[in-house]
Amino acid sequence: MEVIYPRCAGLDVHKDTLVADARIVTGREVKHNVETFAATTSGLLALEQWLSAHNVTHVAMEATGVHWKPGWHELEGRFELVLAKARHIRNLPGRKTYVNDGMWNADLLAHGLIRCSVVPPEPIQHLRDLTRTRKQLVREIAQHTQRIQKTLEDANVKITGLITDLLGVSGRAIIAALVAGETDPERLAEPPLLAYQREIAEDDARFCFWVKSRQIGATTHTIAWKALKRAVRTGYPQIFLSASKRQVQVFNQSIRKLAAEHLQIELQGSKEQILLHRAGKPWGGFIFLSTNSATAQSYSGDVYIDEACWIPRFAELERVASGMATLKQYTKLYASSVSTVTHPAWRLWAGETGKDGKARPDAIKRITTTVHDAIAGGNDLIDVEVLKAEYSEEAFAQLFLCRPIDDEQSVFKLAQLERCQSDPAAWGPAGGAPCSTCAANGTGQPGTAWRRGGGTAPPLETHT
Q1: Which of 277, 231, 266, 227 is closest to 250 using CA atoms?
Q2: What angle do CA 65, 71, 73 make, to 5 degrees?
Q3: Percent of the chain with pLDDT over 70
Q4: Average pLDDT for 248-261
Q5: Mean pLDDT of all residues in the chain?
Q6: Three-state SS string across 60-79, please?
Q7: What is the mean pLDDT of residues 283-291?
Q8: Which of 46, 125, 207, 349 is 20 to 30 A off residue 230, Cα-Cα?
Q9: Where in the chain are the domains?
């Protein structure tokens, strides 16, 4: 038969060793040089040197499991490699030895009788390994999910019809609670709450004032879940106010997310209102108001005022907003980090609501949660030492230890400065026209009058 590759080699690949046969044709003489190498990195390097010493140009190997890959990676780019399927180069029965297999592979390669399998470039190999691994992981997830479902059905725990993803946030929380021995269905449906969060979420006081550290999950977990659960249970409207319009929308987003994750409900509505329905009839909902006392009324329901100690003209707003919870079935929850001792919200917290500024008895339930309370309650996302290094002692005490700033002796008290504040959203060009006080607004015509609350300011003067 015609010899196509006079200097070639055949490899018989195994887990621990490789048997190499260098087939060298000189004239009419064929010489087989056989050597065994370890399937280690050093052994593969020795194999490469050995093949180079024999001036081998082409190397054939059998695709044996994954054992061929290290040798292929080491020899690729140095020799012309041919990967053969086992059934295409099967030797005659009774003649199978490691040496014979290597020589057989070399003989087949020399005469061009091996059909080469496609081995893609290295980047494609990496991508294929990644996609195959992902496919296998997805398959394993499905298998484990089915096993969990089977176990729950065997115990007559039917939650698979209530949640869409058994291994999602809600599903994992329910399974963890079941393992811990929880049997209350309402508790099983709740998001994971820490001890201090649960105290607020389960509190049923008529009027509760919660003074808290910043960034302890008050808005996104505690208050939002409390309002969502109360709205579903009672059908009472849940009315939210905060120090800014943007902040009150955080409640809107948090309630939607909690409803989707833990109640499997996709809430529909606008930025101002989300309505609930039960059996085709209205069943309360959520109302998101501004801090304007002129608009924060005309509703009835449970009232939540967030960041009360930072709301300008709080006393005026509180008189109007608290009236929305006049009926005995409604509740009020005020929550805030602290600002100054002269702020009306802090005076309400301190009980200094009398005309003489002294404390008087009231029915407010007061709860304080400092950063240390949050950590003791299971919050492991806060590093107190890092915060102390980043904030001054006074700022740390105010923001994280719930100690308000004493501005009694200040030249300008916070209450006085608040009178100078204005809502930027209330300002705009007269007649609703786009701003034209500078060329950047698109009109290039300076001097447009501005208005606030219906009033019009005189045109700006221009000087050249």
Answers
A1: 227
A2: 105
A3: 81
A4: 90
A5: 82
A6: EEECCCCCHHHHHHHHECCE
A7: 89
A8: 349
A9: 7-119, 131-189, 195-400
Report the amino acid identity of residue 435: C
Beta pairing, strands 29-38 & 17-26: antiparallel
**Cβ contact 364:209 at 8 Å:** yes
CATH code of the region 7-119: 3.30.420.10
**Which letter does DSSP use for residue 438 in this model?**
S
Beta-sheet pairing, 302-306 with 332-336: parallel
pTM for the model: 0.61
> Of 192, 185, 178, whose CA–CA distance to 220 is shortest?
192
Label residue 139 exposed, middle or buried (CB < 10 Å: 0-12, 13-18, 19+): exposed
Q: What is the pLDDT of residue 246?
A: 87
Closest-CA residue to 223 (of 206, 240, 237):
240
Residues 301 and 236: their CA atoms lie apart, in Å, by 6
Cβ(301)–Cβ(236) under 8 Å?
A: yes
Task: State the residue for tokens 């690729």.
Answer: 76
8 Å CB contact between 36 and 128 = no
Place of tokens 């946030």: 169
DSSP state of 79: B
Q: What is the DSSP letter of 220?
A: I
Residue that has been written with the tokens 């698109």 in this structure: 442
- Using the predicted structure, report yes or no on whether residue 460 has a pLDDT greater than 50: no
Name residue 276's amino acid: L
1 vs 194, residue with greater confidence = 194
Burial 212-242 (b: 16+ CB within 10 A, else e): bbebbbbbbbbbbbbbbbbbbebbbbbbbbb
Q: CATH homologous superfamily of domain 195-400?
A: P-loop containing nucleotide triphosphate hydrolases (3.40.50.300)
The pLDDT assigned to 44 comes to 93
Q: Which two tokens stand for residue 47?
A: 């194999």
Is residue 423 predicted with pLDDT exceeding 60?
no
Lowest mean per-residue pLDDT among 289-293, 315-319, 329-333, 414-418: 414-418
Q: What are phi and psi of 209, to 5 degrees?
A: -120, 115
Burial class (CB in 10 A: 0-12, 13-18, 19+), 210: buried
pLDDT band at residue 421 using 50, 70 and 90 as cut-offs = low
Mean pLDDT of 117-121: 84
Task: Please report which helix (H) or strand (E) contains residue 337, including its range.
Answer: none
| Angle, helix 68-75 to helix 41-53, in steps of 10 degrees | 50
Q: Is 27 helix (H, G, I), strand (E, B) or coil?
A: coil
What is the rounded CA–CA span in Å between residue 448 and residue 459? 5
SS3 for 230-272, per residue?
Answer: HHHHHCCEEEEECCCHHHHHHHHHHHHHHHHHHCCCCCCECCC
Neighbours of 197 (CB within 10 A): 24
Q: Which pLDDT belongs to residue 440? A: 42
